[in-house]
Amino acid sequence: MAKIVVSITCAKDNPDKATVAMVIANAALVSGQDVVVFLSTEGVCLAVKAYADDIKEAGFAPMQDLMSSFLDNGGTMWVCTPCFKKRNYTENDLIEGAKLVGGATLVEALAQGAASISY
Asked: Average pLDDT in the 86-98 region?
């Protein structure tokens, strides 16, 4: 189970915050931690195919690169199912590697001792 959960609640509504969250998630991952990114509320949009392609904050790698690196290096990406469905997305809209989960999955990780960082 995850040792660190990075919770992201924003996307294009606050690309600076979303980008920093993915930078932190990648840093934790490359330092040898088991990391889960949990996307909820507006953050679920990051898991929609092509959505993150144009998020590019000055001084940081593009969001698409950050997300690809995270998933390619073994990171886990959970997407809040009710938040995703509320925005009229379907499982076909998900990027490869992202997984729809309910709140109980997040609670289980936290109950098992995962640290949580929220953005």
From this structure: 97
